[in-house]
Design a protein that fits this description.
The protein is α/β, with parallel strands linked by helices and 385 residues long. The protein has helices at residues 17-31, 43-46, 52-62, 69-75, 133-136, 144-153, 162-166, 175-183, 209-214, 230-236, 252-258, 273-280, 299-306, 318-326, 339-349, 351-366, 368-384, and strands at 2-9, 35-42, 79-84, 101-104, 118-119, 122-123, 169-172, 191-193, 217-221, 242-246, 265-269, 285-288, 311-314, 329-332. It has 2 domains: 2-111 and 157-197 and 367-384, 3-Layer(aba) Sandwich (Rossmann fold), CATH 3.40.50.2000; 209-366, Glycogen Phosphorylase B (Rossmann fold). The two termini are 17 Å apart. Keywords: Glycosyltransferase, Transferase.
Length: 385
Amino acid sequence: MRVALVHSFHHSDVPSGENVVVNAQEEALLAAGHEVLVVAQDNDVRSRRRTYPLEAAATVVTGFGPDPTEMLRRIAPDVVHVHNLFPNFGTRWLPRWEGPLVATLHNFRPICPAGTLLRDGHRCTDCTTDPRAAVRHRCFQESRVATLPLAVAGRRGAPHHPVIARADRLITISERAAAEYRAVGVGAERLVVVPNAVPDDEPGPVRSAVEHELDPRWLFLGRLSAEKGVGELLARWPAGLRLDVVGSGWLEADLRAAHADRPEIRFLGALSNVEVRTRLAGYTGLVVPSLWAEAGPPLTYVEALAAGVPVVAVEGNGAADDIARNGTGLVVGKEFVEDLAIALKDVARDRPRLGPRARAVYEQHFSTGAWVRALTDVYREAARG
C-alpha cells in the first residue's frame, strides 16, 4: 500500500508527540513493507520569515496557504493520512482531493483553540457555545492576537472543521477523545480509536526489585508547561524521594528556582528520545500529573510500558484512563497531597508484578505491529467508503 503522510512539523525546540508519532509511523509502515512518503511543512523553516506570523494567521483564518495537492498527485497514494495542517498548510485543497483520506485528531483544537479543553487548571468547553471566549481569555499562547485566528476559523464548530468535514475516517487515540468529538456533533460512524505506538527498543540497565523498594527513583518526562501539571506535582512531591525531571518549557526557570533547595528533585533538561529510552528501565516508575484530559495515553506513558516501567497518574488524564483499564500502575486523585506518597510507596513495593504487567499491555495494545495492523484496517475502510 502506498501511503502519504501530511504533517506540519512543530518547532524542534518544543517537545512534540505529534512529530514523534509521524516519524514512528513512517518507520513502522516501511518496516511492514508499505511505501510511505511524507509531505511536510516545517515550523523551523517557515518561521525564519519576518512575515511568518501574518502568513500563518491568514492561512488559519482563510484556509489559503501551502497546498500539497500537486505533490500528492505525483505520488498517487492509495490513501492520504493527514496528521496536522496547523498552521502551515492551507485547507482549501481538502474538498478537491478525491482519493481516500484519513486524519488523526491528536488534540482538541477543532473544539478548543488551546487544544486542551483546559483553562486555569479546570476543564473548559466555553468555545462550543461562544467562540469569542478563547479570545477574551487569551487561550492560545496567552495572547488575544494569537488566539483570534483560531477562534474565527473554529466559529462554526468542530463538525465544520475542514479536516473533519472531509475525512473518510477520523482516528482518535482514545475512547475519551472519541466521546469528546461525538459530544460536539462529529459522526460516530467515521470515528475509529487507534492508540499511538512506540518502537520496541532494547531497554537500558534494569535494577532489581529490592533496589526499587529500598531506593526508589521516579521520573517526570514531558513539556514543562501548566497543562502538564508539573508545578502541582513538584509542590506536592514527598520530601527525600528522588525525582528526575526531564524536559523543557516556559516554566523551567521558575520551577528550578522554586525547588533549588530540594536535592531530591533533579532537573535534567531536554534529553533525546534515544537517551530517554535508554534510561527508562532504571526508574521505579513514571509519574504523569497532566491536568488536561489529553487526547489519549501520552507517548511517554507508552514508552514506560515498553520498558516494563509502571506509572502513577492523576485521574482524568489519558495515562490514568489506561491504568484504570489495564492495571499498569496506580491512579491518584486531583488533590493528590496524601495519596501520592501512598501510591508511590505501593508501586515501588509491587514493581515485580507491575513491571511485567506494563510490558504485557505494551505488547498487546501499543506495539508497532498492532499499530500497523489497525492503521491498515482503517485505510482499507476509508478506501471502501
